[in-house]
Amino acid sequence: MKKYFAFTVLLFFVGTVLPGQAEYLPKKRYKAFRVENAPVINGAFDDPAWQQGTWAGGFIQHEPYADRPPSQDTEFKVAFDDLNLYVAIRAIDMSPDSITSRMSRRDNGEGDMVFVIFDSYHDLRTGFVFGVSAAGVRFDQIFSNNGQNEDPSWDPIWQAKTQVYDWGWAAEMKIPFTQLRFKKNSSEVWGFEVARQIFRHEEISLWHPIPRNAPGLIHAMGELEGLEEIEPRKLLDLMPYGVASNNTYEPEEGNPFADGSDPKLSIGLDGKVGVTNNLTIDFTINPDFGQVEADPSEVNLSAFETYFQEKRPFFIEGSNITSFNVGLGDGGVGNDNLFYSRRIGRRPHGDPELEDGEYAKMPLFAPILGAGKITGKTQNGISMGVLEAVTADTKAMIDRDGERRQETVEPLTNYSLARVQKDFNKGNTIIGGAVTNVLRRLDGTGLDYLHQDATTGGVDFAQYFRDRNYSLNASLYFSNVGGSTEAISETQRSSARYYQRPDADHLEFDSTLTRLSGLGGKLEFGKIGGNWNFLFMNVFKSPGLELNDMGFMRQADHMLNVLWSGYSFTEPFSIFRSVNLNNDVFVSSDFGGEVNGVGYEYNVRGYFKNFWHAGVGGGFNFMEVSTTMLRGGPSMLMPNSSRLYLNLGTDDRKVFSAEFFGSRHWAASDNFRRWSYDLDFTFRPFNTLSISLNPSYMDQFDVLQYVSIQEMAGEDRYIFARIDQKVLSMSLRVNYNITPDLTIQYWGQPFIACGEYTQFKMITDPHADAFRDRYREFTTDQMTLEDEVYFIDENRDGVSDYSFDVPDFTVDEWLSNLVIRWEFLPGSTAYLVWSQTRDYFDSSGTFEVMDNVDQLFTDKRANNTILLKVSYRIGLR
């Protein structure tokens, strides 16, 4: 461990003598000009409007070489009238037959492209991006936090056309002022940048040069002047929609709710209303998200909830404003947030208990009656996001011989969120806060194990130093949940904290509580500009912290300290275009002061001059003590573990490209081992079609896989077993883009997972020095298998002391989703969707690929859904 820590410290101090922080040139300015007659947007530049003004050029290469002339020149003009901004870009190319014109879905950003970025707030933190490819595919997103965060879900209403000529290609844009946010009578300049991507060289050039090692993008852009005369314009867009769908499936004999077909008609309304030019209300009434792709298949054998990405457009757009992240890094603890939008319209908590002869019609999710949000930034620099949503009192319909009753499975629930931030000192100081609240109407529902109310809140602070090359970030937040004694007892016993742990002296389970509160915080300080960077991070969550009513939190009772350091070689050298080195050390503990683990991680990523890329990384865990392994039992000492991964990818500009990712995880004492492999093949036979195939395979064994907790003679028995698990999946994605506004997309995923349990055992001494002394395996004369149930005679007296079900499993699924999308008018869209689910389960634990696939097609009829959704935009300005 000492030598790995020493390497981190060495890299930390070596960075202090290597080239340091980003350096900036004086900012360029471009003056926009007014036109009386708007140009026709056709990519021709033959209108009188474009005879005015001056062409600006002088672009500087940004990648792969900084501060060099680009391989091709670029020029632009910016004009405006009372309603719109107009941008003309001449992308000169001496080899026009080499221009890459790839047709793709909006926001994919493939091929030769040009972009403009407006910091119309001029807060040096927020950028509105408008881009278009040589094929005419639009790209738009919002940069926030000085370009550190991206929101590609933003889809403003604007126009762009392109044409290819013998001198290169042309792009012409029309951007309504309603789609931008700026002050009335703006006498200040806007932040402004123009960028060009030459795909065949993977080259990016900028009008105003920005250092590759800059700690952000927006604050370093050039400036746009001449817009003093413009007036902000309010937005009003109404989008009524209708949905017709039919779901077919295997009918169930005797079940009146499963006759094999469920037709459905519904209508709803989405809208955007400009309260001011800077603040927008988005609302949805009776929303339908039938066009959204399904979540990928998985088998979760842990005690923790799986985090799924949000895919519903209403909740994705503006998520950078409503987010209050309290995690570190990506994945795992990095997903922790005060707001997790998947809670709204979730799968119901309840599951009715049925008697013999009863059938139930169970809703798949809690319907959203309505939702609204206000997002934007006021004239005095306060960015805000306010969200309100209400989900219905969701009931399962239960039938017995024609007699029907209803049972609530999810109560009427109100979700509220408010998020504000204020920046000072040209964006170098930022203070913010957030509050969330969930209220449930539980009276008479029988769902008293849920919280009746849950509130979280926090404040955060950011300070940037020395031209933003150094940063200090801190946040402090709390939670308070209330409900019945049953609800709060469930919270105390949950996998996030396990108050019932017998060896946790700092925890005390109290069955009489009706409220529970907790506190958390995060501190980060480091150097974020320049080639060498470092970051110290600390995060803590007290045992009583509970964010999971409206947010996401994996584990409370946790403290984590991380020291990270990295160096980036941004200029090409030898065979490399660029190289990134990263490593960190970390220490985790609980609030009782017990160290749960010490670790070291590293990775190296290289991008080659032949446009291939590769990476290698890994890590080591030491002194690991798990407080969750026994799921409420005492902590357990775990063997040291290691991991290693390798990544290699070919040139993705080619007709055929491939990428490989492989990893190996293993632990001392031969306790655990996992191999995983991922391949990604992409084939582009022509510019309008892309086919991707992503097979993956995982093979692992774990000597200590949780099975059950049983009781004997008043003492808990923690039952574990060896599991041999295999998972095989393969995603197929086909994108056919007929035009930028008419696309066909298919996604399909067969998934096979099996788990076979052997060597059943009970934990006897979780902190024994020798790993094999921490448990005792059951002998054959202690175990009896009858009707898929194991009976355990622990004391060998001929009488079963406890039992548990056979845990072996085989899970087969095949998910398919086909979407035809047509934007027949700007903002008006039609979707034709087919989705199919095939699934099969048994307790054999066998992994026979052909047999598993055969069961998917012969066991029962597939679940098929056909859906047509049409929305029509009514825009009033």
Brief overview:
With 877 residues, the protein is mostly beta strands.
Structure characterization notes:
There is one protein chain. With 877 residues, the chain is mainly β. The protein has 5 helices and 48 strands. The strands form 6 sheets. It has a 24-stranded antiparallel barrel. A hairpin with a 4-residue loop joins strand 7 (127-133) and strand 8 (138-144). Mean pLDDT is 91; it is low at 1-19.
Topology (SSEs and partners):
Elements: H1 2-14, E1 29-31, E2 33-34, E3 60-63, E4 74-80, E5 84-92, E6 113-119, E7 127-133, E8 138-144, E9 149-151, E10 159-165, E11 168-176, E12 190-198, E13 203-206, E14 222-225, E15 236-248, E16 261-274, E17 279-285, H2 313-316, H3 319-322, E18 359-361, E19 368-377, E20 382-391, E21 394-400, E22 403-410, E23 413-424, E24 429-440, E25 453-465, E26 470-482, H4 485-493, E27 515-527, E28 532-541, E29 558-569, E30 576-589, E31 595-608, E32 613-622, E33 625-626, E34 636-637, E35 641-649, E36 656-667, E37 672-686, E38 689-712, E39 715-739, E40 742-763, E41 775-777, E42 783-786, E43 789-792, E44 802-805, E45 809-825, E46 828-842, H5 849-858, E47 863-871, E48 874-876
Parallel strand pairs: 1-14, 2-4
Antiparallel strand pairs: 3-13, 4-5, 5-11, 6-7, 6-12, 7-8, 8-9, 10-11, 12-13, 12-14, 15-16, 15-47, 15-48, 16-17, 17-19, 18-21, 19-20, 20-23, 21-22, 23-24, 24-25, 25-26, 26-27, 27-28, 28-29, 29-30, 30-31, 31-32, 32-35, 33-34, 35-36, 36-37, 37-38, 38-39, 39-40, 40-41, 40-45, 42-43, 43-44, 45-46, ...
